[in-house]
Each structure stands twice: as C-alpha cells, then as structure tokens.
Design a protein that fits this description.
Elements (H helix, E strand, L loop, with lengths): L1 E6 L2 E5 L2 E6 L6 E2 L10 E5 L4 E5 L6 E3 L2 E2 L3 E3 L5 E4 L2 E8 L47 H9 L5 H4 L79 E3 L2 H38 L1 E4 L2 E4 L9 H7 L5 H14 L4 H32 L3 H5 L2 E5 L8 H14 L3 H6 L5 H6 L1 E6 L1
Parallel strand pairs: 3-4
Antiparallel strand pairs: 1-2, 1-11, 3-5, 5-6, 6-9, 7-8, 7-10, 10-11, 12-16, 13-14, 15-16
C-alpha cells in the first residue's frame, strides 16, 4: 500500500523501507526547521504496516496528542506531531508502494546549533510516558493548529490560552529562506502574514534564517551540537550472543590474515629471488650462497625451495643483511621495493575487508553472515571512517583481552574505548 504524510505544507510520500524524519542532511524525510531535531523520528514502512519511533528528539513525537516512546504502530488518519510539523498519515491500499518514490529534499545546510526547545505545555496522559529530557512537551501553538484541523483534542484545549491562533504557525512574508523540503510546492502561493499576539509576543523575535519567528527565550545560538554519523542503520538491533561474536570475529581475522598472505607473500618471495639473481648466487647443500661468478642460469626453483629447508629463513636474513652492506645497492633496493609493495597489499586488505566493510556494510563478511553489526553505542548508527579505524586499531593492540570479554559476555575493551558495540540484527 502507498503511505504518505499530508500537512499544511504539502504531501510527503513514505516509500518502502526505513526513513528518518529530521533536519539532518542524511535524513530521507528532511524538513529544514530549527525546532526539528537532526534525527527526530524513524518511520518503518514494511508494506502492510507502518511504525514510528522517537529518536530522542528535543520536542518529542505525539500521536493524536499523546506522547510516545519506543516504537508505535500507526493507523490511517492519525495525526502525527513532530516538533513544529503536523501531519496526518494516510494509507492507500489501492496503490502499490515503491522504494523509489521521489522524496523532496532541500539544498540548505542544517543549522549547526542544538535543536530549539519549544515552549512546554503539560498534556493529559503525559505522566504515563517517560520524558527523555526537559521541555519535551507540545507547543501550545502546535496543539491549537491540530485542534483547528478537526482533530479531537478537547482535553488539550482546556489547558490552551484562549487567544492562541494557528496563524502563528504560518511563515513570515519577510523570511529570507523557504519553508524547507517542500518549499518548491508552495512557490507562487501567498500565505497570510503572522498575526501579532500581545500575550505571546514577548517570546517572539524575528530571525532571518528561520522559517518561523517562534524562538524560546532561553535559546543559545552558541550551544554545542552532537555530531551524527554519516551512515544511518535501517535495522532494529538487539544484544549479540557471545558465541556469535567469537565465531564471526575469529573467522574474519583468519580471513584477513589469509588475504595478507596470499597478496603479500608472493611479492616478498619474488623480490628475494630477483635480488639474489642480480647479486649472483649458487646453491650449496640446498641453501643459497652469494658468489662473485654467477651461474649462467639462476636456480630460481632451488632458491624458493631453500626457504622451506632447515635454516632457510635464517640464511635468507643473513643474505639480505649482506646485500644491505654491499657496495652495489641495486639488489637490496629490489628487496626494499618489493617489501614495500607487500606491506601496502596488507594495508589494503585490512582497509577493505575490516574497516571498509564495517563502515559501508556494518561489519566484515563473517560477522555479517552471523547477523552481527558494529555500531556506535550511543546512536546505533554505522561507524564513521575515523571511528572504524580507531576501533580496529585498538583491537590490534588489545586483542589478547578479547577472549576474556567474550567469556564474561561483556563488551571488549577496544569497543568501550572507541564507543562501539556489536549488536544482533532482529
């Protein structure tokens, strides 16, 4: 079925899949308003049902006037309030939903400051739902707009000032910017100007870069903001079993070591044989020896086999050291160049298999096959490149402690220090 959100600013289609509503650049349902959190709410369109989840937003999510926490199943016709945005969700079972429906976006950069907290208003029934933070009640102006749209919020109306008007929700004609993601749909339509109200006007002051003049009195433009990761995770997550973490992690480490061996070892051996051929070498008792009169044909096969003989690795180290002190540096430069290429191959293997897969896919191959994903512990989002590098770098240093953490079914020290966690996809 097709699902869309309709409101005063137009219509927003909700394609199949998971979508984040907010003002952040990575939101698929993006509306540029300072009172909307960067990641305000998450909508899951599963085909036959639609759910919504408050992502710890500053101004909260309300369904038909009641605050929600956790995941809430939506029904057609319900009124959704996300900060300053009021929508009615409508289901159309006669049309087929698609993952590729056009979602309007905005080219504006999100406000780098914290979300503007709206004026609080205690609502009936809000004591039953835990409040994530201070001042997460519905704004009286928003409640008035919902009441004027025909929604039955009589209980809310008893606590509203008698002179609150929905006209305050309209953008000022003097605003220097559009109304957000749906600005193009409202082009050419002249909206009524905001009406001054002496009882509320004391907390209102115009701002040129906002779509509304509703600014809380305690707003601080210099307050710090939380940096959000670039890759949102569209799956629901739960705790990961210790045995799955152990199996997936062990297989991934073994796989990356095999990749390093397969890519780097042939280059190292080839450089060693090439350098000895340049310097001149003969085989005595199965081991190579440098000679001033090189043979006509270089014993390449015998040099390679000598590495597996007793004392072959020690002899290779001695010959490389001898070439480093020799007057002719060409053979040693050959070994140095091929060793550098082998190291680069190892680094590329680690970057692609461990770090790249963690950032783009959520976890390396075997952990992903076990249904595991590595996320930021505070947000549940994919790791950024820097965090992934720090996480795997700490693992390389602290891997002896990993079995202890697994035995106790606790997060590894490398995950704790990097702010990460391994989770199970539900």
């Amino acid at each position: 079925m097709r699902v869309h959100l309709t409101g005063p600013t137009g219509d927003l289609a909700v394609p199949l899949g998971t979508h984040v509503l907010g003002r952040g650049q990575d939101c698929t349902l993006r509306i540029d308003d300072g009172r909307l959190s960067r990641h305000h709410a998450r909508l899951h369109h599963l085909g036959a049902s639609v759910t919504i989840e408050d992502l710890g937003s500053t101004n909260g999510v309300l369904i038909n006037g009641e605050r929600i926490s956790g995941i809430h199943t939506l029904e057609s016709g319900q009124v959704i309030i996300c900060g300053p945005c009021v929508f009615k969700i409508l289901f159309d079972p006669t049309q087929k939903a698609s993952k590729s429906e056009l979602i309007p976006q905005t080219d504006r950069q999100p406000n780098p400051t914290d979300t503007e907290a709206m004026d609080p208003l205690e609502l009936p029934g809000t004591d039953k739902v835990p409040t994530p933070a201070k001042k997460r009640q519905i704004n009286p102006l928003i409640a008035a707009a919902v009441s004027s749209s025909g929604t039955d919020l009589a209980a809310i109306g008893n606590k509203l000032p008698s002179d609150v008007s929905s006209a305050f929700l309209q953008p000022s004609e003097d605003s220097k910017s559009g109304t957000g993601a749906l600005a193009t749909k409202m082009a050419g339509k002249k909206l009524p100007p905001a009406t001054a109200n002496p009882k509320i006007g004391e907390s209102i002051r115009p701002r040129g870069d906002q779509t509304s003049a509703l600014v809380p009195s305690d707003f601080n433009s210099n307050s710090s903001s939380a940096l959000q990761p670039d890759f949102p995770l569209n799956d629901r997550l739960g705790p990961a079993a210790a045995y799955k973490r152990a199996i997936g992690g062990l297989f991934d480490i073994v796989t990356v070591l095999l990749l390093i061996t397969l890519l780097g070892l042939p280059v190292l051996v080839g450089g060693y044989v090439w350098a000895l051929a340049q310097a001149g070498v003969t085989i005595e008792q199965g081991l190579p020896r440098l000679t001033s009169i090189p043979p006509t044909v270089t014993p390449t096969h015998d040099i390679i086999v000598s590495l597996s003989r007793p004392g072959g690795i020690e002899r290779a180290g001695y010959l490389i050291e001898t070439l480093a002190r020799a007057q002719d540096q060409q053979p040693f430069l050959t070994i140095f160049a091929t060793s550098t290429i082998a190291v680069l191959a190892a680094v590329v293997s680690i970057l692609v298999y461990l770090i790249g897969a963690t950032v783009v896919r959520g976890s390396p191959f075997w952990q992903r096959r076990m249904g595991l994903v590595i996320v930021e512990v505070n947000t549940g989002y994919h790791l950024t490149w820097m965090r992934a590098i720090v996480r795997w770098g700490l693992f390389a240093l602290l891997w002896p402690l990993a079995p202890i953490s697994l035995a106790a079914d606790k997060r590894g020290l490398h995950d704790i220090l990097s702010g990460c966690a391994v989770r199970q996809k539900l």
